[in-house]
Specification:
The chain has 147 residues and is an alpha+beta fold. The protein has a domain of 88 residues: Protein of unknown function (DUF3299) (OB fold (Dihydrolipoamide Acetyltransferase, E2P), Beta Barrel). It has three helices and seven strands; from the N terminus they run ααββαβββββ. The strands form two sheets. A five-stranded mixed β-barrel has the order 3-4-5-7-6. A two-stranded antiparallel sheet has the order 1-2. A hairpin with a 2-residue loop joins strand 1 and strand 2.
């Protein structure tokens, strides 16, 4: 009887651990925060070049989900190319206290309408450490996910 109880407890812990692991994988922002920077110089001055952790590198090319807020840039909104922030507008990288690891470019396969509410997108993650004109995280072939 004790053996059956132990086996049942072991199975319960295994299932709960699996559910917990799946929940952690859906929070891509936490994983993306594991980035550091090295300073490089070019003709225009210092550049902060991202150095991605092994955990981040494992996500490259994988389909991930990210939730956040659409950040209108330069007064424009392109319904198929958005900037997504894990933080609300007042705290985002461009307007407040967030770092560059809190934003990503999202290339959508279908245009979406602008909203100030939190949205969730799913797409293939690309890492960028070489093009200073782009953000370091880019989600390609992305789609809006129902919350």
């Amino acid at each position: 009887m004790k053996r059956i109880k132990f086996l049942g407890l072991f199975l319960l812990i295994s299932v709960l651990g699996s559910v917990s692991l799946q929940a952690q994988q859906t929070n891509v922002w936490k994983s993306l925060s594991e980035v550091s920077y090295k300073i490089s110089e070019d003709n225009f001055g210092e550049l902060y070049v991202p150095v991605f952790s092994e955990n981040i590198k494992k996500l490259e090319g994988k389909v991930v989900e990210a939730d956040g807020y659409i950040i209108p840039f330069e007064g424009m909104f392109k319904p198929e190319h958005i900037i997504l922030s894990s933080l609300p507008l007042a705290e985002c990288f461009f307007c407040g206290s967030g770092g560059p690891e809190t934003v990503m470019e999202v290339m959508l396969s279908s245009p979406i309408k602008y909203t100030s509410k939190r949205v969730k997108v799913r797409g293939k993650l690309t890492l960028n450490s070489s093009d200073p004109e782009k953000l370091m995280y880019i989600l390609k072939d992305a789609q809006l996910v129902d919350n």
